[in-house]
Amino acid sequence: MAPDFEIARERGSPPVIFNQSERLQGTQRNPDLQGGTAKMAQIIRVAGLDVSKDRLDVAVHGGERCTVAYDAAGLRELEAWLCRQHVTTVALEASGGYEREAAEYFEAQAFLVRVLNPLRVRRFAEARGRLAKNDRIDADTIAHYAETFSEVRPRRDAELDRLAEAIQARHAIQEMILACGQQLEHLRTAPLRREITRQQAGLARTLERITRGIAELVAEHADWATLAERLQTVPGVGPVLAHTLIALLPELGRIDRHKIASLVGVAPFDDDSGKHKGERHIAGGRRAVRRPLYMAALVAKRHNPVIAAFAKRLTGKAPKEIIVACMRKLLVILNAIARDGAHWRNLSPA
Predict the structure, then answer these.
(1) Is 184 helix (H, G, I), strand (E, B) or coil?
(2) Which of 68, 193, 202, 276 is the most exposed place for a label (fewest CB within 10 A)?
(3) In this structure, what are the phi and psi dihedrals at residue 86, rounded to the nearest 5 degrees?
(4) Strands 46-51, 89-93: parallel, antiparallel or unpaired by DSSP?
């Protein structure tokens, strides 16, 4: 049976999906289609949006193009243009946050919105032999990519986006605190040291407030709080990793162990050709999830009996290879806990 929902965002961006009935409503909302046949109502046209700071370049692959200002009036003008073109799906690249206003606007207007990984779109253009790059060409490439590839992802809501934003802000503050510490290692001028020390202390207080806010936001949602509590029953897993998984890995517990490892970027990929047997390496994945997973695996390697026994069996391999394997093992355990709605059981390692 075909799934009753479709992807709206790709890796690297919070995924939002609409089910088929919502998409159909978006199609029927178009006055030009209401008098058409049932077959016309099922037609799905994709528009690619190339987002700049002050304008949007739009293209229907192999068809019409337009450019509008990136403001409230421009979005309304673009909505009317999309309706005239019978567009039901809007695709745009993740661009550091500039895409969010457009994505949220068209979601609210019942369009299916997909936010794409820009690296994948670029590789797709190169595979087609398209080396030229400008905003109008990019819009057409985005539309073509979205027509060609699709995948299913869990539904995401605004509250989960709030949590993800807080998680990412916390990491940014941590990086700033680290930068202050690195500066203090080399500064000798007393006034400068005092200034950087004050900044570091202020950032530390901000970090505490953000961390407290994250915990409060999770506690407000019974399902998040329950999942966080279950994940933290695993030795080595604390609130930072639990909250990060809830916010940035909504697929947890919904896909199998091979896919979850690949999605996070801890699955080793083959590098073979003919008689050549290359080393396996991890690649891609969600770096923001790997960071706390790495720290948790370091703790679990010492204090979690299952992970410790697993690491012991890998003695003789490179240290980095062992810790990545432990990260993968820990992630698979957490995926099973989220899938089964279970708590950690302190099993004797086999």
Answers:
(1) helix
(2) 276
(3) 60, 35
(4) parallel
Confidence of residue 43 (pLDDT cuts 50, 70, 90): low
Distance in angstroms (rounded) separating the CA atoms of residues 49 and 103: 10
Terminal Cα distance for the chain, rounded: 39
* Dist CA 321 CA 301 (whole Å): 13
Determine the pLDDT at residue 152: 55
3-state secondary structure of 277: strand
Cβ atoms within 10 Å of 254's Cβ, excluding its own: 15
The owner of tokens 């016309």 is: 40
For the residues 298-322, what does the mean pLDDT come to?
94
Residues linked to residue 112 through DSSP beta bridges, in sequence order: 89
- Taking Cα atoms as reference points, which of 53, 51, 56, 59 lies closest to residue 67? 56
pLDDT digit string, tens, across residues 61-73 = 878 899 999 999 9
Please give the structure tokens belonging to residue 258.
């091979």
At which residue do the structure tokens 């202390």 appear? 201
The answer, yes or no, to whether residue 271 has pLDDT greater than 90, is no
d(CA 106, CA 91): 10
Entry pTM: 0.78
- pLDDT at position 14 is 43
| CATH of the structural domain 20-148, one choice from 3.40.630.30, 3.90.460.10, 3.20.20.70, 3.30.420.40 | 3.30.420.40
Coil, helix or strand at residue 9 = strand
**Residue with the two structure tokens 């700071």:** 53
For 194-210, the pLDDT digits (tens) are 999 999 999 999 999 99
Q: Are residues 235 and 344 in contact, defined by beta-carbon separation less than 8 angstroms?
A: yes
| Amino acid 336: pLDDT | 94
Planar angle of CA 109, 7, 281, nearest 5 degrees: 145
Cα separations in angstroms, 97 against 103, 182, 254: 10, 29, 27
Residue 46 pLDDT > 60, yes or no? yes
CB 260 within 8 A of CB 329: no
